[in-house]
């Protein structure tokens, strides 16, 4: 059914005058008469009784009138939702992230939700390599991740993260080099199952520094790792973002050399056009500019 026919039926029912209804609809009376006739033919019902005083609803028209009001409201709502989807005002976004973003994601998501409360965001933690695959397959819409080697994805830098050697303040001796500090204490790390990306970054770093032969105790929970470090049972290697997020009082010294620092950013599949995604990216840009101006 043409929505214009439904609207004409409602307005004529309320006005009870072809002249007044035509004026409200901004059409001519013959055009209104044609629309009503088409609707009656489509429904195979007589909706109005016509006389010299205008038009009043027939018994069949009376029964349909309230249903027409409900249907008109539903259609208007449907069109409103469609417009929001088309302009990126409602819908769903699936977003991947790594633990390096724990510090900044809450502010970004909250700022976006304030602008677009009708958009549902699903956050999924996964390594950067997996995010790249999921973005290319269209299973996630955006990814907070490390910068990839290739150019298959669009990438907006948001900052850096870096490895730190984390110790109890009593253990830290500034006369020792970082290598000596690691070599002379037990090493306690997160397991590969807990954080595959971080596991490989740390393993590569230790191998590069010829410290990969030293026994390592692996735990699945970062709080357990820090509990042992806090008990002076060893040292650990963690990204600065995690230490900063946990607001711990441990001694934290940045590591240097061999990929101990990496670029963080927002990535997306440039071959797929998603209006909602564009709105999110714009919000991230605005949030970034606001934070930079305040810093």
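-> sequence recovered:
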């Amino acid at each position: 059914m043409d929505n214009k026919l439904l609207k004409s039926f409602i307005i004529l029912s309320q006005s009870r005058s072809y002249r007044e209804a035509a004026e409200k609809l901004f059409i001519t009376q013959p055009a209104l008469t044609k629309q009503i006739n088409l609707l009656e033919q489509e429904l195979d019902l007589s909706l109005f009784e016509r006389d010299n005083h205008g038009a009043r609803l027939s018994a069949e028209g009376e029964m349909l009138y309230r249903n027409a009001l409900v249907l008109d409201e539903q259609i208007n709502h449907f069109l409103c939702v469609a417009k929001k989807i088309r302009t990126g005002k409602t819908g769903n976004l699936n977003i991947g992230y790594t633990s390096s973003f724990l510090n900044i994601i809450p502010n970004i998501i909250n700022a976006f939700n304030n602008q677009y409360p009708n958009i549902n965001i699903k956050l999924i933690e996964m390594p950067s390599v997996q995010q790249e695959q999921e973005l290319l397959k269209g299973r996630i819409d955006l990814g907070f991740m490390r910068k990839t080697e290739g150019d298959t994805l669009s990438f907006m830098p948001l900052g850096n993260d870096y490895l730190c050697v984390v110790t109890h303040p009593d253990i830290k001796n500034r006369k020792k080099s970082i290598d000596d500090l690691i070599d002379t204490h037990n090493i306690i790390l997160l397991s590969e199952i807990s954080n595959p990306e971080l596991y490989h970054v740390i393993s590569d770093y230790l191998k590069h520094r010829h410290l990969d032969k030293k026994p390592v105790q692996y735990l699945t929970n970062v709080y357990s790792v820090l509990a042992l470090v806090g008990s002076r049972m060893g040292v650990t290697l963690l990204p600065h973002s995690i230490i900063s997020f946990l607001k711990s009082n441990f001694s934290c010294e940045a590591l240097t050399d061999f990929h101990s620092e990496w670029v963080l950013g927002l990535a997306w599949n440039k071959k797929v056009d998603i209006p909602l995604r564009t709105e999110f990216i714009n919000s991230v840009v605005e949030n970034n500019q606001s934070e930079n101006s305040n810093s």
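The mean pLDDT is 88.
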